[in-house]
Amino acid sequence: MRRTNPRTLASRGLSYLLLSAVALVSLGPILWMVSASFKSPNEILRYPPTIIPENFKWENYQQVFELQPFAQQFLNSVYIMALVAVLTILLSVPAGYALARVRPVAAGVIFLVLLSAMFIPPEATIIPLFQMASTLGWIDTHYPLVIFTAVLTTAPIATFVMRQAFLTLPAEFEEAATIDGATRLRTMLQIYFPLARPSLASVTVLACWYSWNQFLEPLIYVRSPEMLTVPVALTRYEDAFAGPLWGVQMAATTLSVIPVLLVFFFAQRHVVSGLTAGGLKS
Amino acid sequence: MALRTTEVVPAGEHPRARPPARQAARRPARGRDQGRNLFGYALLAPQMVGFLAIGVVALVWVVWLSLNHVNVLAGTQEFVGLANYTRILSDPNMATVLPNTFFFVCVLSIAGTIVALLLALMLNQALRGINIYRSIIFIPALVTMVAWSLVWSFIVQPEGLLDAVLAFLGLDPLPWLRGGWLTLSVFAFIQLTKNVGINVMIFLGALQAVPQELIEAARIDGAGRMRVVRSVVVPQISPAILMVFMLMIVGSFKVFEVVLILTEGGPGVQSSVLSFEIYKQAFKLNDVGYASALSVLLFALILLLTTAIWQVRKRVVFHEAD
Q1: Which of A13, A280, A281, B141 would you call most buried, defined as having the most Cβ atoms within 10 angstroms of its Cβ?
Q2: Ranges for the ABC transmembrane type-1 domain (chain B) (predicted)?
């Protein structure tokens, strides 16, 4: 098999060439962002642009925290993400189990209702949700970012994923447990939930990823800077004349990317399976 | 189960009150059955109650708002029937916004699926260092869309990196963000490169599940590389292709961050899309009734498209007999 004829060699070369071009488009902007985060405003606007900054301007990173409560905003994003993940699991794991294993009479209809929820774009219901939040006094709080997101978006998708997971587990465990005198609740908690752990990890990643990326919702529900989340905060680095502070903005953007990349490199498999779980068919 | 007919009927229970034997075989006895239903509904309740109380109410509410004229500042609301919908038809801006929206739906779903499939096929080869390429192509999917858009706004700005590349090639700078097809293409490119990694991963997973024997059999029958892909691999992964296509259609209606950050829909509404118009009309111009009508239109479009695709799936998608 190690024999290489000229044709496979050429096709390999072509593959590397094309893949490198794609890699440039994927990684290039991120390298550019890091480079710009160290540049002075003058150097950023220089034409033609420089790749390696002339003199590293660390003040950009300092200003990220001075112009906005960025540490607080970062913390907001992290804890909202954690709450969305927890709420998603609490809602979706029992529901997925019910749809796959318990199957009450109307399970089919309920499943269809949840499936349709996956196709309602948040943009289509943002107006009534805003009015709801405003009636409840939830404007400029994090309640809508946690509760609306989990209930309407992440939990329905997660329920779908968990249903698939429980469907693939054998029903014999259930029968065996019943014969041994275990209650339904015990069978579910002690036998099926532990077996579904890989899917649980996927669902957690999915919920975290969705929550961390949210932009429209915090843009609308949140007013004060110290309540903002990272994606919206990134757009608020402006000078007194509402011109963008490119260097500071790129520094903040670089900081926002670091934790995501760290998680990716340490938990690559879970991240990938989590993001693709919804797309895999039964 | 044959014993069922000769079974002794417990005292006090009428024989005909028992369910027919077949049903009894499928479901547990009646008392247990009710417990089962109760247990099932208890597990489903938090999710369903939440979804009905927030999602369904919101959906009904937005339809109601779309039939009203809402004055946010005065706090008044007046029923106007279908006036907001007729306004969509006569709004000259919609003659730009709707085609723009459809442009993204078509380009992102078709190009997004094809590009992801080609990349997955390339990444599925046993090449040295292929894992590095897999990771790199996936990285933009992890970065938030806002960060990705901000970096790109920087690259496509007048006299930015892209213009510098053109100058290096001896070409004149292009008006990347001044509306028209060029701006829409730039947006589509930014959106596509951001999300292509996820679709590549879905396809890679599907490709690795294709039975190797099928491919070898086709090879032995003398099929070339392209032929194997077309006649064996693509039919085998067609469920994944359909899934990605549907995800891309739903996702393509959500082109939003890139519009807000790069052009705010301008000049005029030349680079705007439906989701951005909803945001603008409702939260910038306070025209809640009209924005609600646009929301209903958005939802109806997605429902129509996904249902249509779901309907044709049986003809197109290859299902392995299982």
Answers
A1: B141
A2: 98-309
